[in-house]
Amino acid sequence: MNYDRRRACHPGDVKQYDTERLRKEFLVETLFVKDEINLSYSQYERYILGGAFPVEQALVMETIDAIKSEYFCERRELGVINIAGDGVVKVDGKEYPLTAKEAIYIGRGSKEIVFSSVDKNNPAKFYLSSTPAHKEYPTTIVNKEKANILNLGSQATSNERTIYQLIVPGIVESCQLVMGLTELHEGSVWNTMPSHTHDRRMEAYFYFEVPQGQAVCHLMGEPQETRHLFMHNEQAVFSPEWGIHSGVGTSNYSFIWGMGGENLDYTDMDHIQPDELR
């Protein structure tokens, strides 16, 4: 188990950051290391993201010093989405198979969480998101058939995409964690345009299925004071409540979004039209 900490940053300070500082504060470059769990703990909503990559051995989700708990989910809920080979998530002795692009919600009070791969030659990769929780909700598997599916955008605006809402109200009960997965169609490169902010919660993006040699330009910062980060395959970025989160790739790709904060309303956002951005 490895983790780092990210402090909250004032938007007035962030506009003075150079590229190196922006990347240090907001970008998570390495999530998947063979037979390790790597986490990044943000002061924004106490949100934790990370990756578990079991190859030769099963990996136990242990607590970390920063949260001062007896076990990881003592006061937290956890969302997991597998992005690679078949895997198994064991929660308090019960095994939950998880194939590619399936999710599992693990509720507060779950003591033993273990990640493993079915085949070490085609290992699972588990993307993790966690937020503080005030109540226990049951562990629940969500696949694409159970997901709420939205088809948005168009080829004309280069943002034709399919959104799979996985851990959202009506599908899974959670305290504050919301998660889903978006696939951009071939020929489309823009995600989340028009961009938006939501003052009542923060969000994190995890980009994957970015082809080799390609990149995603992730847009962040205040709407009138935007910044950007060039991101590569299987990297994540924290988005504070005061900033936009949008991106454009040099090819189509997929990304996982996760949110935590004041409410669970997916549509609670303040849109900024393209001609309003600076």
From TrEMBL:
Residues engaged in binding Zn(2+): H196, H198, E203, H245
Matching Gene3D superfamilies = Jelly Rolls, pectin degrading enzyme 5-keto 4- deoxyuronate isomerase, domain 1
- Briefly state the protein's biological role: Catalyzes the isomerization of 5-dehydro-4-deoxy-D-glucuronate to 3-deoxy-D-glycero-2,5-hexodiulosonate.
Any one of the GO BP annotations: pectin catabolic process
Its domain of life reads: Bacteria
Record family assignment: Belongs to the KduI family.
Entry cofactors: Zn(2+)
Pfam families on file: KduI
Reaction(s) catalyzed by this protein?
5-dehydro-4-deoxy-D-glucuronate = 3-deoxy-D-glycero-2,5-hexodiulosonate
Q: Which CDD domains match?
A: cupin_KduI_C (cd20491), cupin_KduI_N (cd20294)
State if Zinc is listed as a keyword.
yes
Q: In which pathway does it act?
A: Glycan metabolism; pectin degradation; 2-dehydro-3-deoxy-D-gluconate from pectin: step 4/5
What protein is this chain from? 4-deoxy-L-threo-5-hexosulose-uronate ketol-isomerase
Cleavable signal peptide: none
Q: Which GO terms describe its molecular function?
A: 4-deoxy-L-threo-5-hexosulose-uronate ketol-isomerase activity; zinc ion binding
Instruction: Report the InterPro entries cross-referenced here.
Output: KduI, KduI/IolB_isomerase, KduI_N, RmlC-like_jellyroll, RmlC_Cupin_sf
> What's the record's note on cofactor binding?
Binds 1 zinc ion per subunit.
Organism, scientific name:
Carboxylicivirga sediminis
Keywords attached to this Swiss-Prot or TrEMBL record, sorted alphabetically, are: Isomerase, Metal-binding, Zinc
Q: What is its EC number?
A: 5.3.1.17
